[in-house]
Amino acid sequence: MDDSSLSSSIDVDKGFAIAFVILLFLFLIVMIFRCAKLVKNPYEASSTTAEPPLS
């Protein structure tokens, strides 16, 4: 049995871990931009919820 071919192949667990970390960072970046948009203009961001007028 030749172990050199096994060591040169990509480890599946390591690939899943790297993909998970990349997706986590992308989610974090999206949340940062959404929160910054909310802080910049909170009334525009909250107008997406349809609330009936009180009168």
From TrEMBL:
> Which keywords does the record carry?
Membrane, Transmembrane, Transmembrane helix
Q: Which GO terms describe its cellular component?
A: membrane
The UniProt transmembrane annotation reads 15-33
Q: Where does it localize?
A: Membrane
List the lineage, top down. Answer: Eukaryota, Metazoa, Chordata, Craniata, Vertebrata
**Protein's name according to its UniProt entry:** Cortexin domain containing 2
| Lipid bilayer topology | Single-pass membrane protein
PANTHER family under this entry?
A: CORTEXIN DOMAIN CONTAINING 2, CORTEXIN-1-RELATED
- Give the top-rank taxon of the lineage listed in the UniProt record for this protein: Eukaryota
Mainly localized where?
membrane
